Task: inverse folding
């Protein structure tokens, strides 16, 4: 495992706890809502998808980054719904649940993206026709 992968995993794991700590700041402060919003929208998805076991090509990396947001938002909806169903929803419980999830999942390898690693996300360069008929 490369040093960059360790840093990425550590950053993803800590991002949830930083967002949780930011919620202790005064109500309307951008220093409170920006980290929380960024973490909820991207943190759990990055934890699930990154880093990939194999180095991805540039188009596949873009695809993986784009997929992080819907995965994060889906996990956020599932977490919020679960907390509402057990009548335990609060902002703190929501952020702690997502931060704990991201921390645990960041220690695991990213989900494989078969289309990205097999080259489906990249355009195939074709050789020019030689003129043989």
Result:
């Amino acid at each position: 495992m490369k040093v960059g992968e360790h840093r990425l995993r550590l950053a993803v794991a800590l991002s949830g706890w930083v967002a949780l700590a930011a919620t202790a700041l005064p109500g309307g402060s951008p220093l409170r809502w920006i980290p929380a919003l960024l973490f909820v929208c991207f943190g759990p998805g990055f934890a699930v998808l990154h880093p990939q076991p194999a180095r991805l090509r540039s188009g596949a990396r873009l695809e993986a980054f784009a997929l992080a947001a819907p995965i994060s938002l889906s996990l956020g909806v599932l977490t919020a719904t679960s907390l509402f169903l057990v009548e335990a929803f609060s902002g703190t419980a929501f952020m702690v649940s997502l931060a704990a999830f991201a921390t645990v999942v960041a220690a695991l390898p990213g989900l494989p993206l078969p289309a990205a690693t097999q080259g489906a996300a990249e355009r195939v360069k074709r050789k020019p026709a030689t003129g043989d008929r």
In short: The chain is about 65% helix and 0% strand.
